[in-house]
C-alpha cells in the first residue's frame, strides 16, 4: 500500500515513526535504518525521510555534525535512490546552512544518474528561494560549464527564487543569452516565462530583457511570457490581454 493510500491520521503516524527511526539511527550511529528509508520504493516515504532529517537538523544543533557525516557517507552508495534522497536532505539543510552541503550539491550535479541530478535542481530551487545569496553564488560558478546539461540544470534550478525576486536571477540568466545549446536556450526561455507572471514581476523582467543584446532570444522570451499568461491565467497578476498591452507599451 502506497503512502497516500492511507488516511491522513495514518500518514501522520507513518511520518512520526520515520522521524523517530532516523533520530534513533543518528544517535546509535547505524546507517542501515536510514538507508532503508532513503531507498524506499515509495517516493513519499523518501520525502518523509529527507524532510525529517531537515527538521532534526533545524531543531537541534547537536546533530549537525552527525547528519553531515551520514549524508556524506551515504552519497557514496551505489543505489541512486539513496543518493537522490541525500541530495534532497542536503536541500533542506541548505535553506539555512548552504556551506555545510555545498560539496554534496557539486557532486550531485555530476552524478551519473538523472534522479540525482534532478534532485540537485530541486534542492537549488527550494534553498535558493529562502537562502539566495550563497546558492546563487554557487550557481554562477557553473553558468559557463563545458557540459550543456550542467548549464541547463543550473538555469532551471534558480527559477524559483526568480518567481518572487526576478531581479536576483536576471543577471545570471543574461549570461546565458548567447548559449548555443538548444536545451539550454529552451530552458532559459522557459525560466524567463516562469518568473514573469506574478505580481510585480512582469515589469522587472520586461524592463531588464529589453536591454539584452540577443534580441532574437528576447523575442522568443516575450512570446513565452505572453503564452504563460494564458496557461497560468488563474495565477497571473495580469490577464494575457493586459500583459500584451503592457509589453507593447514598452517597445522602443
The gyration radius over C-alpha positions equals 20 Å
Beta-strand fraction estimate: under 5%
Total of helices: 15
Largest sheet: none
Rounded average pLDDT: 95
User: What is the N-to-C succession of helices and strands?
Assistant: HHHHHHHHHHHHHHH
CA-based shape: elongated
What is the terminal-to-terminal distance? 60 Å
How many β-strand runs? 0
Percentage of helical residues?
A: over 70%
**Uncertain residue segments:** none
Category by helix and strand content = mainly alpha
Oligomer: single chain
Please give a structural write-up.
- With 252 residues, the chain is an all-alpha fold.
- Helix 1 packs antiparallel against helix 2, helix 1 crosses helix 3 and helix 9 packs parallel to helix 12.
- The mean pLDDT is 95.
Set down the secondary structure blueprint:
Blueprint: H1 8-28, H2 32-38, H3 43-59, H4 64-74, H5 80-97, H6 102-109, H7 114-130, H8 132-140, H9 148-157, H10 159-164, H11 166-174, H12 182-194, H13 201-209, H14 215-231, H15 240-249
Helix pairs in contact: 1-2, 1-3, 3-5, 4-5, 5-6, 5-7, 7-8, 7-9, 9-12, 11-13, 12-14, 14-15
Annotation keywords:
252 residues, mainly alpha, 0% strand
Q: How would you concisely characterize the structure shown here?
A:
The protein has 15 helices and no strands. The protein is mainly α.
